[in-house]
Design brief:
Helix content: 25-40%
Shape: elongated
Number of helices: 16
Strand order of the largest sheet: 17-16-22-13-14-21-18-19
Largest sheet: 8 strands, antiparallel
Radius of gyration: 32 Å
Number of strands: 36
Length: 699
């Protein structure tokens, strides 16, 4: 971001509207390769924003401006491209279709009021497509469909429409039908050829009659317009303007999903789609606002998309530009954001992802309308609109922006848990500071990325959504000037005693002045898994003075943390202090701590020490047809299946316990086993004995 213009010839100044009713926030959703970015480019050109459409393969599109997106020829991040059509500002929000970037999709859903679901006429509906549809449904997002790439050699609009209806329901109905040279409008009964529209002839009217009747009945039923239904059933010819108004109501309710045939390459259907976006899609006034509280968690008065209301906005994405620094993409939900004004930035509830709770007052210098990477200055941004802010240093993705005199906090949207660990290290000492700075910027902008500094393995681990996400993260780290290497991720093991043992600790030193004198004898016995550590005092006769009993325990505990044989913490043992000796002058707290540590090490030399590995409880959801291959794979991972359940949607959920060391690449492997349809969650359960044959591999 940061440039004011590009080779596409977009204007330097942005478009600002004063009425939320004249804003449409449309998120483009669909599987990778379905044509979302190409469609956005074609719509921008059709609306006159671009002098010519760019190309994904050539890396010249507005939305795929990230170097990683250009290299991979697919979107890897959310991008906004506004256009103006019939006096309505349409913010096209292009999102990645690949599962690794679902966090970008959820940010787009948060910023949008409706989704344009893009499928290819040549690809059918696969598991990845239905998963994306479910993402939209989970947040109640109104959806329409575009069947794109109609110029593909294998394109079949009728077959793709049937597949969509089978997958998404009977309320998926076409508004237009493609013909050899144009479109037939089912509502208007007009034939569109290029820029011309004429009334359909008698043969065409007859051809579309059945599809038109189903469409009108669906629109009227889902808009719940009983008066119009009575008029329709009575045989009255309904004015298209009335039908379109009911279509907008049905779409806004989220229960009706119109279908538009579009070909970005030939321009087929672009003008019809632009008309639909401005006339048949809901405005921000119809979209419910997220829950709002004050920073202390107390309920706040309900808000609406009122430009004159209190300022409430949200940072939906954060990027770092090499020229202007941090760029925050903001959705304004209430009030009006203006330049040269103070705002309050608040972020809470994401400490587990490395985002500590924070509150700060900042000053907004300029407001921009983003067009891909370009920033075009605007005088204000009203409720319902999107804008970009620069140099708001404390702002992170998910933060709330509000008025300093009335600070509020918006409920965060749900983010998926990253499940692929990648251990990173700076190649040289001089790279360490650069790596640390770049990591903090990446984590601030990407809530799906979690940074873990593991004190036991001494590794810096990035938890990513998958291999593609990890590749993009590493690319961005290196682009920031850090020489970064990766190394195998190590799991945190534990040690324990395999059998009882006795230990003797003697710490006696005399070097002038006060010496050091402490002797103790202990018994060590293993405890059941998960018992932790117990210390028992069975000293008789005062051989270890009472004030030094705790010192022995401190020394034992310190040695437990340091480990015994392989340096892993020791767990699940009971240590009993049975005897010892003290000196009236030379005994001390430090001396008995040292003796306690020596006693435990002496016991370890006499007993067999077992390694324990972490075991996770894993919940895996897959289509039924992949059950056999997934269960076979779990067996190979030394997993233990606890149970399976099957639902009415053809999905099976598996509960299993699996060693964490075998799950390091499971995010990649499960996707491969299930053609991208499998998902899983994991939670630490306990430490179990590591098979002796594997001890050398994981130690």
């Amino acid at each position: 971001m940061g440039s004011k213009h590009s080779e596409h010839g977009q204007p330097e100044s942005g478009v600002a509207v004063s009425d939320p009713a004249r804003v449409r926030n449309i998120v483009l959703v669909g599987p990778s390769g379905s044509g979302k970015t190409t469609l956005a480019e074609a719509l921008l050109a059709a609306a006159g924003v671009l002098s010519r459409a760019g190309s994904v393969t050539e890396g010249t599109t507005v939305c795929d401006h990230d170097p990683a997106a250009v290299r991979q020829q697919r979107s890897v991040g959310l991008s906004v491209a506004p256009l103006l059509h019939d006096g309505v500002k349409v913010n096209l929000i292009d999102t990645p279709g690949y599962a690794d970037f679902v966090g970008e999709l959820r940010a787009g859903l948060r910023a949008a009021d409706a989704a344009l679901f893009v499928v290819s006429a040549a690809e059918g509906v696969d598991a990845a497509t239905t998963a994306l549809w479910a993402e939209c449904a989970a947040v109640g997002m109104p959806r329409a469909l575009v069947i794109a790439r109609l110029d593909h050699a294998r394109a079949d609009f009728t077959a793709e429409l049937a597949a969509c209806r089978a997958a998404f329901g009977a309320t998926v109905l076409p508004v237009y039908l493609p013909t050899a040279d144009g479109l037939l409008g089912l509502i208007t009964q007009r034939r569109i050829t290029g820029a011309d529209a004429v009334d359909a002839n008698a043969e065409e009217v007859a051809e579309m009659a059945a599809a038109r009747a189903e469409l009108l009945e669906g629109i009227i039923a889902e808009s719940e317009d009983e008066t119009l239904m009575d008029r329709y059933l009575a045989g009255e010819e309904i004015d298209p303007t009335t039908i379109v108004a009911d279509l907008e109501t049905a779409v806004a309710r989220g229960s009706f999903h119109p279908v538009f045939p579009v070909c970005a390459g030939t321009g087929l259907g672009l003008s019809a789609l632009l008309d639909a976006l401005t006339r048949a899609f809901p405005s921000p006034l119809e979209h419910p606002l997220p829950e709002v509280t004050d920073p202390g968690g107390r309920a706040h008065a309900a808000l609406s998309a009122d430009p004159d209301g209190p300022l409430v906005a949200e940072v939906v994405r954060t990027a770092v530009d090499s020229y202007v620094g941090r760029v925050s993409l903001v959705r304004v939900f209430s009030g009006t954001l203006r330049p040269e004004r103070a705002v309050h930035v608040s972020g809470h509830g994401l400490a587990d992802r490395g985002h500590e709770d924070h509150d700060a007052d900042e000053r907004v210098a300029h407001i921009y309308s983003p067009l891909g990477a370009a920033l075009r200055e605007v005088p204000y941004c009203v409720a319902g609109d999107l804008c970009a802010l620069t140099k708001v240093g404390s702002a992170e993705t998910g933060d709330t922006v509000s008025a300093p005199e009335d600070p509020v906090l918006m409920a965060p949207w749900a983010m998926p848990e990253p499940l692929l660990p990648v251990a990173v290290t700076a190649k040289t000492r001089s790279d360490e500071d650069v790596l640390a700075r770049n990591l903090s910027r990446l984590v601030a902008g990407d809530p799906t990325l979690r940074l873990e500094r593991n004190a036991e393995t001494h590794q810096m681990v990035l938890w990513c959504m998958g291999e593609a996400h990890a590749d993009v993260v590493l690319d961005r780290l290196r682009a920031g000037g850090a020489e970064v290497a990766t190394e195998p991720v190590r799991v945190s093991l534990r040690e324990t005693f395999a059998a009882p043992a006795r230990g003797h600790g003697r710490h006696v030193k005399q070097s002038g002045g006060h010496g050091q004198y402490a002797v103790c004898d202990i018994e060590v016995e293993p405890l059941p898994t998960g018992s932790g550590f117990e210390f028992v005092d069975r000293v008789v006769g005062g051989s270890v003075p009472h004030q030094f009993i705790g010192s022995v325990e401190k020394g034992v505990r310190a040695q437990l943390e340091r480990g015994l044989q392989d340096g892993h913490p020791v767990v699940d043992i009971r240590v009993t202090l049975t005897d010892g000796k003290a000196h009236s002058v030379d005994s001390s707290d430090a001396a008995f701590q040292t003796a306690g540590s020596l006693a435990l090490r002496d016991a370890a030399e006499k007993a067999r020490i077992s390694l324990l590995e972490p075991v996770d409880e894993v919940t895996i959801t897959i289509p039924d047809e992949h059950l056999g291959s997934v269960l076979g794979d779990l067996s190979a991972r030394r997993g233990r299946v606890l149970g399976t359940t099957t639902d009415a949607n053809g999905k099976t959920t598996i509960q299993a316990e699996i060693p964490a060391a075998t799950l390091l690449r499971y995010a990649i492997d499960l996707r491969s086993l299930t053609s991208g349809a499998g998902t899983f969650t994991r939670e630490f359960s306990r430490f179990d004995p590591l098979p002796s044959a594997l001890a050398s591999q994981y130690a």
